[in-house]
Amino acid sequence: MAYKVTIGLEIHAELKTNTKMFCQCKNDPDEEKPNWNICPVCTAQPGTLPVINKKAVEHVLRVGTALGSNLADFTEWDRKNYFYPDIPKNYQISQYKYPLVSGGTLAGVDITRIHLEEDTGSSQHDQGDYSLVNYNRAGVPLMELVTEPVIHDAETAMRFAKELQLLLRYLGASDANMEKGEMRVEANISISETETFGTKVEVKNINSFKSVGDAIAYEIKRHAEVLGRGEKIVQETRGWDENASKTFSQRKKESANDYRYFPDPDLPKMQISEIPEFQNLKGTLPELPWEKRERLQKEYDFPDFITEMLVTNEIVRDFFEKVASGLSGDKELIKLASNYLTSDLAALMKAGDGTPWKVTPENFIGLMHMVHAGDVSSRGAKDTLAILYKEGGDANVVAEKNGLIQKSDAGALEAIVKEVITANQGVADEYKAGKLASLQYLVGQGMKASKGSANPQVLSELFKKSLE
């Protein structure tokens, strides 16, 4: 039976600020010492009062501006009440009725709201008969984005999550590393035989884009099997077991009433229009990912895979921008550079530490000029680049020192041509008899004899001339 699949996403992202959301404790996701970045405020000691982190509010408003959303003028914070060891206050400061951002779209998916709250602590449950709680993360500013239930397949859900991660990084709002828990995806999934929504199940603990797709696919299949047996779907919260590649039941799904939201009496209401730092946010935005894609395609007509690498890989992107600037808008050289950057240099980076190491935009530009001028062959350029990666230096000097300069002088290559013909007289006779493919074999032997230093075009002409 065919079912209509409906998916909505809830995505949390820890924001990049110096301090936590409501106190002066350091916001450091890499802190290894447990319960180190804590204070009386974020551990909920009696008599303490929270103070709003202005930078965190600005981050969320800039995200909303980038998405074409509606920014709130009035907003307030609420207490979301639930009892769990990683919530020091036994409630979480969040936003309910008046979120900072509403509406907007990303990757073709409509957004319901984006609000700001504080993160919880983290628990370790593998200690035997007891669990440990680390409050370093408690109180870290956390952005929550909720989509409309307009997603109908796992691929769209993954694409949306990836594009959001990219946007957050472009804006400097969050590093959004899923493996560190800095961005966490929750999927609400239902299936139905009609246009009416089915019973919704929420899947938590999804910590990679692949797992987003796998968890959604698993739930769609599970729902179909349950309905196929004539049973009903239970509305609940489920976790994702990455090792077993399946979901598991965690608890009955709460409703908003279960959390007993009410305005936090310790925090002031906010009138966004009265705060100077929150005005004209559009002017603070960088070139956004979708704008960069459009510009690269329009200016250079790059293949999609090159465009996507330049958009998504920050190190490659920054290197390219410096190279393009150094080439002064020469589109032919820039396209040549993009090919070597996204293939050969990217491969060296992947095998190394992820950086261009000792390849600088300057010596890379020098190498591109040499390739364009025919001073080095494609093979010679790859070998020169590999040496530059490890040792640095001037591209021309490196190529010369290592015998990688391409020989184009006919006089210097004629001896190689004669030697190859003598050693391969049968192939030479085949070419004379009309087998044109034999020429490529002879050129290949000539390149081999010259250790890759010969200009293949010049070699080809010399072979033709000698065999006429």
Architecture overview:
41% of the residues lie in helices and 18% in strands. With 468 residues, it is of the alpha+beta class. A hairpin with a 2-residue loop joins strand 7 and strand 8. Helix 7 (314-326) packs across helix 9 (361-373), helix 8 packs across helix 10 (378-391) and helix 13 runs antiparallel to helix 14.
Low-confidence stretches: none
Largest sheet: 10 strands, mixed
Q: Write down how many β-strands occur, each being a DSSP E stretch of 2 or more residues.
A: 17
Number of helices: 15
Beta-strand residue fraction: 15-25%
List the helices and strands and how they pair.
Elements: E1 4-14, H1 54-66, E2 70-71, E3 74-75, E4 78-81, E5 91-94, E6 101-102, E7 105-106, E8 109-118, E9 122-124, E10 132-134, E11 141-147, H2 154-171, E12 183-192, E13 201-206, H3 209-228, E14 236-241, E15 246-252, H4 256-259, E16 262-263, E17 270-271, H5 289-300, H6 304-312, H7 314-326, H8 331-351, H9 361-373, H10 378-391, H11 395-401, H12 410-423, H13 425-432, H14 437-449, H15 456-467
Parallel strand pairs: 13-14
Antiparallel strand pairs: 1-11, 1-12, 2-6, 3-17, 4-5, 4-16, 6-8, 7-8, 8-11, 9-10, 12-13, 14-15
Helix pairs in contact: 2-3, 5-6, 6-7, 7-8, 7-9, 8-10, 9-10, 12-14, 12-15, 13-14, 14-15
